[in-house]
UniProtKB/TrEMBL annotation:
InterPro entries: IraD/Gp25-like
This protein's name: IraD/Gp25-like domain-containing protein
Species this protein is from: Gynuella sunshinyii YC6258
IraD/Gp25-like domain ranges (all copies): 3-73
Pfam families listed in its UniProt record: GPW_gp25 (PF04965)
Classification lineage: Bacteria, Pseudomonadati, Pseudomonadota, Gammaproteobacteria, Oceanospirillales
Superkingdom field: Bacteria
């Protein structure tokens, strides 16, 4: 499995795992995952909120991606970042 495929799998796990909501927990494995996008509501603003949170979570849990960004293109989330073995940004469509 390539690094790109491994990172894609890690992002998929992060986006499909619902995290524990407890403000008293320190950042760590118990907070792995994302809230359900349905909990955020409906609309473009909510997708932007989700993408900002996803960017934070990727920075926390996927150190292989440098310069990570999460953007919305054609109504879909796209993770963009540079892998250690490349100078060119890689894109992962969600």
């Amino acid at each position: 499995m390539s690094v790109k495929e491994s990172v894609a799998r890690s992002i998929q796990q992060l986006t499909t795992t619902q995290y524990v909501r407890d403000g008293q927990l320190l950042p760590g494995i118990l907070n792995f995952g994302m809230p359900s996008i349905c909990d955020l509501g409906v609309g473009g603003g909510d997708l932007r909120q989700f993408s900002a949170l996803l960017k934070e979570r990727i920075q926390q849990f996927e150190p292989r991606i440098k310069g990570v960004d999460v953007v919305i293109e054609r109504g879909r989330l796209v993770v963009i970042g540079t892998l250690p073995d490349s100078d060119e940004p890689t894109r992962w469509w969600l």
